[in-house]
From TrEMBL:
Protein name: N-acetyltransferase
InterPro entries: Hexapep (IPR001451), Trans_hexapeptide_repeat (IPR050179), Trimer_LpxA-like_sf (IPR011004)
Organism: Arthrobacter cavernae
Superkingdom, natural source: Bacteria
SUPFAM superfamilies hit by this protein: Trimeric LpxA-like enzymes
Length: 196
């Protein structure tokens, strides 16, 4: 069952997966595709043609501009902005108002399980890797590897996180999740899971 608050504005051309909930004052535009069990919080904006996997959460007042692509289980915190214009201008060099046809939108891609903290801004085009965590207030301007913990303006990698979201601790050549005990190996500034 899909739940849509009476004050939400959901296009008839949007595809909403079973079990999804769209709360007060949220807007979901034409051709957006939300997977099953997604949550779109109060006042959030989901742009035209945005694609979201199953089990995503977009918190209150987040702005997910097209052509963003969110994998399964992505968390978008309150007031996060995913941009889509590399060189934004309201007017052309001659002073005339620009229209939607005067620029080519570029998107932010967020891979499965990644989390973007409150008020963070992701500057398109950029890809956030699987299970990465972007700290609140960060500004992401470059590609983010899987499992990276990013913070700051511009965002820099401070460490690694596991699937549970906890910072990993180093134990010799491996990184360990203090919550689950899962192990990871770092190689050339990337992290991968150790096969059980």
């Amino acid at each position: 069952m899909i739940v849509v608050a009476p004050s939400a504005d959901v296009s008839d051309k949007a595809v909403i997966g079973d079990g999804s909930k769209i709360w007060h004052l949220a807007q979901v535009r034409e051709d957006a595709e939300l997977g099953a069990n997604c949550i779109v919080g109060r006042g959030a904006y989901i742009g035209t043609g945005v694609k979201m996997g199953d089990n995503c959460k977009v918190q209150n007042y987040a702005l997910v501009y097209e052509p963003a692509v969110l994998g399964a289980g992505v968390f978008i915190g309150p007031a996060v902005v995913l941009t889509n214009d590399t060189y934004p201008r309201a007017v052309a060099p001659d002073g005339s108002l620009k229209s939607a046809h005067d620029w080519e939108p570029v998107g932010v891609t967020i891979k499965d399980g990644a989390s973007i903290g409150a008020r963070a801004v992701c500057i398109a085009p950029v890809t956030i890797g699987r299970w990465a965590t972007i700290a609140a207030g960060a500004v992401v301007t470059k590609e983010v590897p899987d499992f990276a913990l990013m913070a700051g303006v511009p965002a820099k990698r401070l460490g690694w996180v596991g699937k549970a979201g906890f910072p990993l601790t180093q134990d010799g050549d491996t990184w360990v999740c203090p919550k689950t005990g899962d192990k990871y190996v770092e190689h050339n500034e990337t992290l991968r899971e150790v096969e059980a």
